[in-house]
Amino acid sequence: MILHDQIAAQLPEWRNRYKALGKEHADVVVDKVTVGQVVGGMRDIKSLVTDISFVDPAEGIRFRGKSIPEVLKALPKPRGAKIPYVGGLYYLLMVGDVPSRDQALQVEAEWAKRSDVPDYVFKMIKSMPKETHPMTLLSQAVLALQNQSAFVHQYHAGMKKDAYWEPALEDSLDLTAKLPVIAAFIYRMKYFGETKKPKYSARLDYGANFAKMMGVADQKGYAELARLYFILHSDHESGNVSAHTMHLVGSALSDPYLSFSAALNGLAGPLHGLANQECLGWLLDVHQKFGGVPSRDDLYKFAWDTLSSGKVIPGYGHAVLRVPDPRFTAQMSFAKERFPQDELVRLADLVFDVVPTVLKEQGKAKNPAPNVDAISGTLQYYYGVKDFDFYTVLFGVGRALGVTPNYVWARALGQPIERPKSLSTKMLEDIVKAAQPA
Ligand code: CMX
Predict the structure, then answer these.
(1) What is the number of other CB atoms lying within 10 angstroms of the CB of residue 76?
(2) Domains (ranges, CATH) in the chain?
(3) Looking at residue 363, what DSSP letter applies?
(4) pTM (global) more than 0.90
């Protein structure tokens, strides 16, 4: 199978490099850790290894060394489309090279082959109380698939450590193939009361399939957006909550289904994936209050009112980035190219003009620029996907494309179980005391 052979060919060299670090250079100091970092959520402590993506504070995410504009330019695209195949992105993240069109299509074909979701999964989703959050349904569906894990079966059959990555890759392909089907089912069931099993077509790519299964009106336009959205949300280094959860749970050799379900539960938190629904809510509040796009002055005042009431302005600020998120820029360009007159797009653009100034004046946020969430909901809304609480499910489908290559490579390199050290408050206070000048 295509991804398997490409990864296998590179493994000896990567394993040597990784092993050499641990064996020959284990005592070289990488970072110093301050009390502020310990009590501040381990912020910025350099303690994870991944070659899949890297977030440069001054530039944003790079997938396998390539910036977002480079990725969007380099990857092969469906005929007549402007946004690349998602299968090409998956190849890039897994293998590290830009695929040919044929290679991207081979990944797409693997997905089509593996997309069938067993009936009991839909039955389980249907049996849940109506008010269950769609992220809970998605996470449960992933767990329900776990009994199919090749990793689990081979592990219990006595597989050798060197081979862990192979069933991990099988599971990753199966999981990523089934997620859009499950997500579309949740969408149609929850908001339209439909419970027909969505059909994945081998004649359509990942994005086009998703558009069809979601049942949106403009399927061609939404297929482009789906491709863009999934690509942009795939990976953002391995320290964010969802990626790190996948890595941590996987480090216990929990299979990709168990690990990804856990990752989704982290993504469902309001400080992580759920933030995108809040951003659109804020924009709609502005739109409603002013009966359309307000003047610059009115928006300036509204933004200040939000801050003065003790709230954050959703969609702005970032823990690592110090510039506008290139994922925001890519989505804004997408919108301006296709529907520049849309009121919410015009409003999001005005917010981009006004809010950084307001945040700078307030002087608290380290990064007054927009993040990915400042625009992503606006685009979904335009295509008629208006149920905010579904947006994190979309994020989840995209995030699987980044965290599963990380899982495969962590097993391939034999990365160990994670076990950071804890200290008590008293121990930290003693460290602080000992550091005071006498
Ligand atoms: N509006 C108002 N205040 C903000 C702010 C914003 N958009 N962004 C940061 N601040 C404030 C923080 O609340 C913090 O205030 P306190 O000192 O009173 O606690 C101060 O500025 C410093 O924060 P920071 O170091 O710049 O930012 P953090 O790393 O702590 O937090 C983030 C990052 C994203 C949680 C924060 O910027 C925020 O809450 N933004 C709004 C919500 C949002 O858009 N979340 C989506 C994040 C998307 C992603 O992670 O990809």
Answers:
(1) 18
(2) 275-382 (1.10.230.10)
(3) T
(4) yes
Report the residue count for the chain. Answer: 438
Q: Going by C-beta distance under 8 Å and a sequence separation of 6 or more, which residues neighbour residue 86?
A: 108, 205, 206, 207, 226, 227, 230, 231, 401
Q: Give the dihedral of Cα atoms 33, 35, 40, 46; nearest 10 deg.
A: 0
- Which residue, by CA, sits nearest to atom 16 of ligand 1? 364
CA–centroid distance, residue 236 to ligand 1 (Å): 17
pLDDT averaged per 10 residues, the chain (length 438): 94 98 96 96 95 93 97 97 98 98 98 98 98 97 98 98 98 98 98 97 98 98 98 96 98 98 95 84 95 97 96 91 95 97 97 97 96 94 95 97 98 97 98 94
State whether the beta carbon of 373 lies less than 6 angstroms from ligand 1.
Answer: yes
Sequence-distant (≥ 6) Cβ neighbours of residue 142 within 8 angstroms: 175, 179, 182, 257, 260, 261, 264
Could you tell me if the CB of 255 is within 6 A of ligand 1?
no
- Side chain identity at residue 25, one-letter code: H
